[in-house]
Amino acid sequence: LRGRSSAADARFVGRLAAKYQADFDIGSADVRAIAEKRKISIETAAREARYAFFAETARRRNCRTIFVAHHADDLVETFLINLFRGAGNAGLSAMREISTRRIDGIDLTIARPFLCVWRKEIDDYVGEHRLRFREDATNKNLTPLRNRIRHRIVPYLEKTVGRSIRQNIWRTAIIAADEEKWIDSELPDSKHADLSVVKLRALPIALQRRALLKWLRKQNVSDIGFDAIERVRSLADRDARIAKVNLPGNRHARRRAGKIFLE
Amino acid sequence: LRGRSSAADARFVGRLAAKYQADFDIGSADVRAIAEKRKISIETAAREARYAFFAETARRRNCRTIFVAHHADDLVETFLINLFRGAGNAGLSAMREISTRRIDGIDLTIARPFLCVWRKEIDDYVGEHRLRFREDATNKNLTPLRNRIRHRIVPYLEKTVGRSIRQNIWRTAIIAADEEKWIDSELPDSKHADLSVVKLRALPIALQRRALLKWLRKQNVSDIGFDAIERVRSLADRDARIAKVNLPGNRHARRRAGKIFLE
After folding, report:
1. Nearest CA among A252, A224, A193 for reference residue A243
2. Of A21, A164, B54, B123, whose CB count within 10 A is highest?
3. Could B84 and A162 be called an inter-chain contact, meaning their C-beta atoms sit closer than 8 Å?
């Protein structure tokens, strides 16, 4: 996707792996085609292609833990993206130090050891140890919301509100993650392909939303926002007139015989 | 506090009450002196003086429900203030349509019927019905964080991210409030003046924080931030070396004989 710069990135990582005698796997995907076919955003398609590659590699190499390099600034940016998109609390805590994800029948553990390290600390380390590195060429493009948040909004907030703003948002995101972990443990199991309308209705509203989010994620529905959750939740209404609602990625939720299920 | 402009505000409301044949009570307080004496911010002192007046009036008039005029923009601003101060999730949902508060021995119900109405809709209504009104003279002062958020940050976010940003933050705040309501119902009762260390330790971290917040609020500790909660939580540590921590408003939490209590 990034063309020549992307190929140079790959060569750089390949040489680095050789130097450290580490195994090296590389994959590519036509992200634009996936996005069009599945009716999802380019960003979501890229993320899904990435995780499909992780799952495939994990299976082939017989390992189950993926380490990704998200750092504290990534966490803050993700928090703000989710907030600005109205994801609701569950979405606010999307990144955790340890999380699990089932992809193509493989249970992967995702570890993010740098989540409490700031980008600046990494830059300082890189400078101190004179490490060679490459900057992702797409980072400077202000079209993606993440880059506008990184280069415009966070600096503006620091100037207008104060230096500690990133630390404070980071802390809120960490608390949200701790709470989500606990709330998840309180939720009914979501391994079934369908949901009982009666059981869903018995939960408090806040838990209905969380239960639907957990279930939709388990069914691999992408880009689940508040609207999607509320649409599915409306299927459980006692006097619901609609029995089918649309979901991202050209999928549908349907209610029949006291059950909600996906198509 | 606002001097001449404040006196004119009061006269205006008095005339309005007379016109609608409504009872009218007025109170004043030396907020600066309260803030200095209790070592709290001017904003907090003003809020406490306001609620003390509400409680006193409620007792005298024998009514228990207070209607306040916070609107949707206030909710969004409060959410951002709490986020930028690192209040954690519980703080994010500070405003609810209906909440209760015990002040000076009186249980007050606080109703906010305008929480889902935008300032612009109120302005439109006022214009349409040619209602007379007064603007709070302190609104234009950019020193308080709230006013910088209102006049600078929200417009900047709308320009940089998109028009729907306020609606999306509003939605997140409402979800947070629904979740807080449910989490509150899951918490142990906080009516006791002390907390059992053993019981606190038995809760998941997320609930420990929520339980402490609920308890500190019940004990009328003001400006409870994440730091204050974590300090009190540290008293419950199995190998805690400190038995006393500072809280806002010149108060202290202490641990003795397996209990945490305030001084």
Report:
1. A252
2. B54
3. yes
Mutation target vs A (from B178, B184, B226; most A CBs, 10 A cutoff): B178
Contact flag A167-B226 (C-beta cutoff 8 Å) = no
Question: Is the Cβ–Cβ distance between B76 and A158 less than 8 Å?
Answer: no
> How far apart are alpha carbons B80 and A224 in whole angstroms?
23
Distance from CA of B224 to the nearest CA of A (A): 14
Predicted local confidence at residue A116, as pLDDT = 94
Question: Within 13 Å, how many C-alpha atoms sit on residue A7's CB side?
Answer: 2
Report the C-alpha gap between A224 and A210 in whole angstroms.
12
Using CA atoms, how far apart are residues A192 and A55, in angstroms rounded to an integer? 22
Angle at B88 between CA B85 and CA B93, to 5 degrees: 95
Strand-pair partners of A192:
none
Low-confidence ranges of chain B (pLDDT < 70): 1-3, 87-91, 93-94, 190
Q: Report how far residue B156's alpha carbon sits from residue B141's, in angstroms, rounded to the nearest whole number.
A: 18
Q: Over the stretch B225-234, which tens digit does the pLDDT of each residue have?
A: 778 888 999 9
Cα separation of B55 and B66, whole Å?
Answer: 9
| pLDDT of res. B89 | 59
Residue A110 φ then ψ, to 5°? -105, 120
Task: HSE, CB side, 13 Å, CA atoms: give it for residue A8.
Answer: 9
Residues of B whose CB is below 8 A from A162: 84
Short-list A33, A29, A35, A70, CA closest to A51 = A29
Asked whether residue A253 carries a pLDDT value surpassing 90, the answer given is yes
- Residue-wise pLDDT tens digits, B64-119: 999 999 999 999 999 998 888 876 655 676 688 898 888 878 889 999 999 999 99
